[in-house]
Design goal:
The chain contains 23 helices and ten strands. It is of the alpha/beta class. It folds into two domains: 285 residues, Rossmann fold (3-Layer(aba) Sandwich); 68 residues, no CATH class. The strands form two sheets. A six-stranded parallel sheet has the order 1-10-7-4-2-3, with helices on both faces. The protein has a four-stranded mixed sheet with strand order 8-5-6-9. β5 and β6 form a beta hairpin. The longest helix has 23 residues. The termini are far apart. The mean pLDDT is 93. It comes from Streptomyces roseolus.
């Protein structure tokens, strides 16, 4: 995934630092509560929401079960419509394909539609290494890029910034990337939006190459779909001469009728709108309109391995609505950067460890970045059982071992022996009761001491239950 997250600490350390940032917590609390409240109203308007949710789940599961066939059908349809399909097994291959395609045009800059897949593979950094500058055109992504920051939310990447911070970023950085911010810029949303619009307009009109992802790909026609709220995506998808789309292989849906379900559930779950203001669809190329060259890069990058896991593959249903982030008590307090991935929040806690593996301390910590409250499952428009997958991944992390897990296994083994030997258990209980005055109020060790910082240890009774029972019931 993106090199911008390389070297991030494990979630507990990152979250520990994040919760001390009062400005961050205030920004997150205001934004997530506002979005979740609006979403609840939008969803309540549909009497058949539960049926749509179940339909989305079934469509995704059926598609994943036959993914190989639908991808071949998609490739044939895109090719027949005048596009070119490239297959990328990992991030390095995808980056190389895109860089080669851009260099073949002779251009040294591209405009980009907001794309999780390109963030996942670190495309901007890879293009920069090849002498190609990528300009983000989504307003929130622009804020992140100008601020040399990292995205912290799937839907609103700059959710951790307030208006004053955005004004300062625009005023100090816009001039380094193109048209500077107007003199006397304030933090009024209308002024900030106008500054971004003027800054980006020259890039839209100049760029010859556009780069995008896609929310969906329709296998039966080879059509790609991008939904957005600002119109920058429409500009990037229609004005350049060459369009390159990098899309995860799980984004395919079989038919237009299947797409209809998600065009109802995605906008209501994400932006709380009945329909996205801009829904752009394109099928290959045409002589009269849009780019004259279209390239589709189908990205695996761990998705096939995820698909092989019967429990974990649920994560591939995700349509990137971010509803789970907005209701998660852990995300609200820790923020997105603590997850060390472009996929933060509950979905990131189950998707990232499957795409990247759990070899690093960071990735192994993500399945534990949850209270298992289940709020994420309740709002998921494709019914991903996120708590179930979290527990499943925790089991996998435990099976891989490590110092803490070896100690746990030794403790469980010792407890099993004691429970198999009643005399030893009785002797231990009597000893514990007689020495209870000497027992500590807090457990030793870093993990155990944290547990008892806010919890009282159970008080040891004056005598074991078995002795009481023997004296009073026999």
């Amino acid at each position: 995934m993106s090199g911008t997250f390389v070297g991030m600490p494990a979630f507990p350390k990152a979250a520990h630092d994040a919760v001390r940032d009062t400005t961050l917590r205030a920004n997150l609390r205001h934004a997530t509560h506002t979005i979740r409240d609006k979403r609840a109203v939008a969803v309540a308007e549909l009497a058949d929401w539960a049926a749509l949710r179940e339909a989305g789940r079934q469509i995704k599961d059926r598609t994943l079960h036959h993914l190989d066939a639908y991808l071949v059908q998609l490739e044939e349809a895109v090719t027949a419509a005048g596009g070119t399909v490239h297959w990328a097994s990992d991030a390095a291959e995808a980056n190389r394909i895109v860089a080669d395609l851009v260099k073949a045009t002779g251009e040294t800059e591209v405009v980009k539609v907001k794309s999780m897949a390109t963030q996942e593979i670190g495309l901007n950094e890879a293009l920069e290494a090849e002498g190609i500058r990528a300009y983000e055109t989504d307003l929130a992504e622009l804020i992140v890029q100008l601020g040399e920051d990292r995205p912290s939310h799937i839907l609103v990447p700059a959710i951790h910034r307030n208006r004053g911070e955005i004004r300062d970023i625009f005023a100090s950085e816009m001039g380094e990337w193109g048209r500077p911010a107007p003199d006397g810029l304030t933090d009024r949303p209308a002024e900030l939006a106008e500054a971004a619009r003027l800054h980006l307009r020259e890039k839209f009109l100049r760029a010859k190459v556009g780069v995008s992802g896609a929310n969906f790909m329709v296998a039966e026609t080879g059509t790609l779909v991008v939904v957005e709220s600002e119109g920058n995506g429409r500009m990037c998808l229609t004005l350049p001469e060459t369009l390159i789309s990098v899309v995860g292989i799980e984004k395919v849906v079989p038919t237009w009728r299947d797409l209809e379900v998600f065009l109802q559930t995605l906008p209501r779950s994400s932006t709380a709108e009945r329909m996205n203001p801009y829904t752009s669809m394109w099928t290959g190329t045409t002589d009269a309109d849009g780019p004259t060259a279209f390239h589709l890069v189908l990205l695996d990058n761990g998705r096939t391995d995820t698909l092989a896991d019967e429990v974990g593959r649920q994560a591939l249903r995700c349509i990137r609505c971010a509803a789970c982030l907005n209701v998660c008590p852990v995300y609200e307090r820790a923020g997105g950067h603590a997850y060390g991935s472009v996929y933060p929040g509950p979905i990131g806690a189950i998707l990232t460890p499957q795409l990247r593996g759990t070899r690093s301390e960071l990735d192994a910590s993500l399945p534990y970045a949850s209270s298992l409250c289940g709020a994420c499952y309740d709002v998921c428009p494709v019914a991903i059982e996120i708590p179930e997958v979290l527990v499943h991944l925790r089991e996998k992390v435990a099976e891989r071992g490590g110092p803490g897990h070896r100690l746990e296994k030794a403790a469980v083994k010792a407890a099993a022996w004691v429970l198999d030997h009643p005399a030893a258990l009785a002797a231990g209980e009597r000893l514990a009761s007689r020495t209870r005055a000497l027992h500590p109020k807090r457990l030793p060790g870093p993990g155990a001491s944290q547990w008892t910082e806010s919890r009282d240890l159970p008080e040891m009774p004056a005598e074991p239950f078995r002795d009481w029972w023997k004296r009073n019931r026999t």
